[in-house]
Amino acid sequence: xxxxxxxxxxxxxxxxxxxxxxxxxxxxxxxxxxxxxxxxxxxxxxxxxxxxxxxxxxxxxxxxxxxxxxxxxxxxxxxxxxxxxxxxxxxxxxxxxxxxxxxxxxxxxxxxxxxxxxxxxxxxxxxxxxxxxxxxxxxxxxxxxxx
Length: 147
Hints:
Layout: H1 2-15, E1 35-48, E2 55-65, E3 69-74, E4 83-84, E5 90-96, E6 102-111, E7 114-122, E8 124-130, E9 133-138, E10 142-146
Antiparallel strand pairs: 1-2, 1-9, 1-10, 2-3, 4-5, 5-6, 6-7, 8-9
Pfam families: AltA1
Keywords: Disulfide bond, Secreted, Signal
InterPro entries: AltA1 (IPR032382)
């Protein structure tokens, strides 16, 4: 019985339309034209008004790229300033997030006068750090594509 059912259903399976994975839309991109950069351990220290809890400024930001490249800045602001990462071709700027409070703009110098860039949000959770300080830490893994 099983054999006859398989013979009867084989033509139907052969006639089924091919389903294209919508994530691929044709050929895969050339891996030499982009890089996935994993962000981990992001931590920000903010100074706040102890009475109103309004953020006065960001005192420090620290995080890792791909698990082993250390990036940090003192008084980074939220727009415009770029900081190097541990003597590597990577650098970053802190930006306002689009779906979370904070985002990063990453840069990688690939040759003199050329490089890749990309930006993305990093989800954080903020808590009191004691006194007039708030500590915000990354809560989910984040990957930013640079190209």
